[in-house]
Specification:
It is built from 15 helices and no strands. The protein is globular, with a radius of gyration of 20 Å. The protein is mainly alpha-helical. It has one domain. InterPro entries: Complex_I_Subunit_2 (IPR050175), NADH_UbQ_OxRdtase_chain2 (IPR003917), ND/Mrp_TM (IPR001750). It is a multi-pass membrane protein. It is found in: Mitochondrion inner membrane. One of its GO terms (biological process) is mitochondrial electron transport, NADH to ubiquinone.
Amino acid sequence: AILPVISKTKHPRAIEASTKYFLTQAIASCLLLFSCTTNAWYTGTWSITQMDDSYTSTTMLIALTMKAGTAPTHFWLPEVMQGSTLTTAMLISTWQKIAPMTLIFLMSNHIQSNVTLMLGLLSTTFGGWGGMNQTQLRKMMAYSSIANMGWTVLALSSQPKASLVSLFIYIITIIPTISMMELMSTKTLQNMTTSWSTSPTTSTTLTLLLLSTAGLPPLTGFIPKLLILNELVIQNLTPIAVAATTASLLSLVFYLRTAYLTALLNSPSSATSTMKWRQKMKTKSTIMTPTALTTMTMLPSMIK
């Protein structure tokens, strides 16, 4: 159903993005069906909660991570989001990830911990490394999605509930972030430099959302990372926690660069330009923004 949404703009880049999305999802679906058939052959049931073979669970995990857009099968996500509109990119990075991540959560007890740790570290590393040199905001958000999904997968081996919290916080943070970009009609970093002169209130809000997505305290995005790191240390996986923290610094670079261009740079503008201090906000931005920034105090009770 997402294919007509991607290609609705009738632009060659949108058609290319929809084709890439279709081919990638078709390959992932074939691999998923193969894994389910193999599991049914071994266990006599089609339920993914009963998987005794490690090979079957690993191949199914790879198929689901390809659908979710995590490393090392993340190659399609930046190109597809770049060829889509900001609204479609928001759907791809949020709604389209719920189904595969739910299936991964259901089969988390049958997945080898070494596999999830490796996939999580690869996603956090590739997501941070790939987004550093990007000037297109949609590609940057794609690599941000890859990095955040890495944290979600990383928590499956130690605390599956923390992975659900991480996914939930990512969704409620990325929706107002992309909505703010659409509201200001910004698609590149160059556009971000002129946003403050036209709408300082929206630019300040976008800066806080970016810092929340980066995981800086005391914003909401800090808590999932703290919970995951705490669980890794409890499970005597301190080297993995250190590696994940180091990889998150790569993501922090382009988050801070975008926030710096948005809030701290005032590009040259004419004296007749007016600041929109009371810019009309869309409903989804108005509702989701306070939630993304101020729900930190309620999160510890969500994982008990």
